[in-house]
Amino acid sequence: MDNINFIQETGERNFGEIKIYALSTCAFCKKALKYLRENSITFMYIYVDDMAPDDKQALKDKLREAYKKDVGFPFMVINEDRVIIGFKEDEYKTLFPGD
After folding, report:
1. What mean pLDDT comes out for the span 39-64?
2. CB–CB of 34/9 below 8 Å?
3. How far is the C-alpha of 60 from the C-alpha of 21, rounded, in Å?
4. CB burial string 64-92: b at 16+ within 10 A, e below
5. Which of 29, 58, 63, 87 has the maximal Cβ count within 10 Å?
6. How does DSSP assign 33-70, residue by residue?
7. Total Cβ atoms within 10 A of residue 23
8. Overall pTM surpassing 0.90 (yes/no)
9. For all residues of the chain together, what is the average pLDDT?
10. Over the range 40-61, which residues count as b (16 or more CB within 10 Å of their CB) and which as e?
11. Spatial distance between the Cα atoms of 22 and 47, rounded to a whole number of angstroms
12. What span, in angstroms and rounded, lies between the C-alpha atoms of 27 and 13?
């Protein structure tokens, strides 16, 4: 998972390393990315559905093994130790409180 070409988005607020594994066609993924952008939060993301089929499956297997969770989208990893699956705005507001 070290050779993934994430797209970096730099915001005014930093909550550590936030990686989003998303699907380009997923409504919940779009909402998650929109929330982070609108709240000026620094994060990185990749659209898993743009990856080659073998790479996509290998990534999903590695995520499942590393975090002991079924892979759903969006799949957010915060500082390599916390995982949030799906988009729940209330949970995002708790994780990323406003100023």
Report:
1. 94
2. no
3. 10
4. eeebeeebebbbbbbeeeeebbebeeeeb
5. 29
6. HHHHHHTTB-EEEEEGGGS-HHHHHHHHHHHHHHH-S-
7. 16
8. yes
9. 93
10. ebbbebbbbeebeeeeeeebbe
11. 5
12. 24
Mean pLDDT of all residues in 69-95: 94
The answer, yes or no, to whether residue 1 has pLDDT greater than 70, is no
Q: What is the DSSP string of 13-29?
A: B--S-EEEEE-TT-HHH
In terms of Cα–Cα distance, which of 71, 75, 70, 69 is closest to 87? 75
Q: In degrees to the nearest 10, what's the CA dihedral of 6, 33, 71, 58?
A: -20
Mean pLDDT, rounded, for 38-63: 94
Taken in order of first residue, the domains within the chain and their CATH numbers are 7-95 (3.40.30.10)
Q: How far apart are CA 27 and CA 3, in angstroms?
A: 26
Give how far the C-alpha of residue 91 lies from the chain's centroid of Cα atoms, to the nearest Å.
Answer: 14
